[in-house]
Amino acid sequence: MQSILPPLRAMHAFESFGRLGSVSAAARELGVTPGAISQQIKLLEEHLRMPLIVKDGRRASLAPKAKAYHAVLSAGFEKLKQAQHLLSQQVADLDVHVSGLPTLVLKWLNPRLHHFEARFGEASIRLEATHVEPDPEFLDHMFRITYGTASRVFPHARALFRDTCFPVCSPKFLEDYPDALDPEKIADLPWIDIDWGPAYSTVPRLSHWLIAQGLPIPAHKPISVHSLSSSALEAAANGQGIALAQSSFASIDIELGRLVKVSHESLQMPEPYFVCWGPQMMENEKSRNFLNWVLSEASE
Questions:
Q1: Same structural domain for residues 16 and 150?
Q2: What share of the chain is helix, strand, coil (3-state, %, to 5)?
Q3: Rounded to an integer, what distance in angstroms lies between the CA atom of residue 32 and that of residue 36?
Q4: CA 112, CA 110: separation in Å to the nearest integer?
Q5: Are residue 168 and residue 264 in the same domain, yes or no?
Q6: Is residue 247 predicted with pLDDT exceeding 80?
């Protein structure tokens, strides 16, 4: 195998084929003909001196020894995409770029941003709501607001706050199901579940709150399961059932009367939320202002 890198176009064609599973799909993605994809893969095989695909009749797939190579190649192309995205953001000349967990951005950070502008003047802030944690190498150009142990991979992190959870429902649901105010009856009522996924397995769910109160958990399935807390809270506000709400996410809806607490007993989140950043971020005055501001907001 040669040590010199293969042609980029050949690697791109192979990466697309392996990810999408067919020559025709790779051709559509890259805007070329299927024949061109096959030709580039053959060129890569010749360069590496090893077969990369196997054929079973008319179907082609990755050769067993090529799977690990494809995985590393895919990760490399993903980093190239991230670098291009980062450059685009820098060209846009934004003052502050913040990536954060979707509901935390929507329900906690966004409603407070006018306080930042009132204190430091007008600023151009990009908010990116995603569960995907950014590569720590790119954190010199953005803040990341995340939860728990996910913060440990970043160069710098400060705890914002540790939230509390309690069950909520809509006023209409409470009118239809007055037993919701009796904690021992909650397990028998329609309920809404929240599942952030395996990366956030410590985030409490309604069953955890019930167990903490010494109460039985629901024997029936939830009305719906949501990967976003904001989506679950909307379902609760629409009268679909009882949901476990975090205080920082539900406070505005409670103030507006869209949601009501069905119990004053709360369960503390096992870990706090964090703001994370890279070393060069503090060279920018507006970034320093944002960090100081968001920490002060979290302490109130």
A1: no
A2: 50, 20, 30
A3: 6
A4: 5
A5: yes
A6: yes
DSSP-derived letter for residue 5 is: P
CB-count burial class (<10 Å; 0-12, 13-18, 19+) for 239: middle
Is the residue at 2 inside a domain?
no
Domain count of the chain?
3
Q: What is the DSSP string of 217-256?
A: PPSS--SEEESSHHHHHHHHHTTS-EEEEEHHHHHHHHHT
Strand order through the sheet with 143-147: 125-129, 96-100, 143-147, 273-277, 156-161
Task: Please give the model's pTM, rounded to 2 decimal places.
Answer: 0.70
pLDDT digits (tens, 9 = 90+) for 51-81: 998 888 778 889 888 898 898 888 888 877 7
The torsion angles phi and psi of 116, rounded to 5 degrees, stand at: -65, -45
Q: Which residue has the tokens 């067993």?
A: 64
